[in-house]
Amino acid sequence: MKNLTRTYAKLCAGALIVFGFTSCEQKKEKTPATEPVTAEITAPKQIVSVAQAKTMYDAYGERRVGLIEKYENELAPEKKFDVARFGYYDYNTIKEYMNYIEQEAKKANVEISSLRFYFSNYPDKKTFEDGREIKHPKQNSFFIIPAVKDKNDQEYGFYIREEDDGKNVPVLLTDNLEPKKDGEMDRMQSQESKSEASFMPTTPPAPFYAKNKSLVLNEANMVPPPYQ
Fold first, then answer.
1. Model's pTM, two decimal places?
2. Which member of 1, 7, 98, 105 has the lowest number of beta carbons within 10 Å of its beta carbon?
3. What is the dihedral of CA 129, 130, 132, 133, to 10 degrees?
4. pLDDT, tens digit, for every residue of 18-63?
């Protein structure tokens, strides 16, 4: 009888242990995974109101559009010139561009400090010197170029030069897009040889040879296009 009682007690204890373990496992399974909380992004301080944007848009129309139309129509009165008021890229193009310039900057061991938006105008001809088509001659446009800071904290646009050994070197550009006379970005490592730290020639090769990588984004969709 005593043995039976002891056996029964052991069975009950074992059952309780198994039940407790199973309950814990079920609780673990039922516990929902907590998702990481994404911090809300604060608006950049450069955000302006729609009203301010409209004021600036209207000011451009009053102070610039008429002058441009007058100038272009006097040069070619047989065809009315239509002034572009804005341009755009699709969102994926901008994302791809940002990824590309960050990739190339990393290869050249530099950090992009800003993006420059240059006002521009397509020349009055059908193609550029390299044969690339000019879709809308005489039309206003803009292009984007990344910039970096040199050792003196001065900022310059830049492109990448790929040397024969495969090394990527940033070549600095002045504000008017001429190669900086004292040349490429100074090497950060003082241990490098003088040949590696040599300055860019005063007279750059023209046209730029094939191993130069441009980081300039252009050919936005300008609106309105010229009349067809």
1. 0.72
2. 1
3. 30
4. 555 555 555 555 566 777 888 999 999 999 999 999 999 999 999 9
Q: Is the dihedral of CA 219, 225, 227, 228 positive or negative?
A: positive
Report CA Rg, the chain.
32
Q: Residue 171 and residue 159: Cα distance in Å, rounded?
A: 5
- Return d(Cα 82, Cα 180) in angstroms, integer: 36
Task: Give residue 201's identity as a one-letter amino acid code.
Answer: P
Cβ burial of 53 (10 Å; 0-12, 13-18, 19+) is exposed
Half-sphere exposure of 142 (CA within 13 A, CB side): 15
- Token readout for 163 is 């040397």
Residue 155, number of CB atoms within 10 A of its CB: 14
DSSP string of 174-186, one letter each residue:
-TTSPBPTT-SPP
CA distance 189 to 169: 13
How far apart are alpha carbons 118 and 162 in whole angstroms? 25
Answer yes or no: are the C-beta atoms of 68 and 140 closer than 8 Å.
Answer: yes
Distance (Å, rounded) from C-alpha 40 to C-alpha 57?
Answer: 30
* Tens-digit pLDDT profile for residues 142-197: 999 999 999 999 999 999 999 988 899 999 999 999 999 875 554 433 334 333 33
* Largest distance between two CA atoms of the chain: 121
Query: Which residue matches tokens 């604060």?
Result: 42
